[in-house]
Amino acid sequence: MTRLHRKPWLLALPILAVYLASGACFIQSLKHGKYSSIRLRCTGEEVQGRPTISPPYQFYRLACEAAKEAGLEVEQYICNVGEAADKFTKSNEVVDRDAFVAAIKDAMFSQAFTLVLGGKNLGKTLVLKGATCAAENEVQANLTIIDIDMREDPNKPLFSAIFDRIDKKTPSFRKLLKKFAPKLASDFIQFLSRRKTTKTSDLVEQLLSPKVTLRGIISTLLEKQGNRTCLMVDEANLALPGLLDSDRAEATRALQFLVMLTKQEQLASVVLISSELAYPYRLQACGMNLQDVQKIVIANEVPKGEMLSLMVKRWNMSEDLAEQFFAYCGGNIDLCCRGVKNLHELEEDFDPFALIDCPGLPSCAADPDAKKHLRNLVKQGWSPVYDVEMDGAAKLIAGKNVGGIIPRRAIAFDRPKGIWDGKHEYALVPSGTLMRWKIAKELERVDSMGAGSATSQPSAVVWVCQLRSIGSGGFQPAGDAFPIDPVPQNIAYLKKAMKQENPNTVSCDAYQIDIYRRAQDGRWVKETRMSASLRKTNEADCYGFMLPAGAAGAT
Question: Of 3.30.70, 3.10.20, 1.25.40, 3.40.1350, which CATH number belongs to 462-546?
Answer without folding.
Answer: 3.10.20
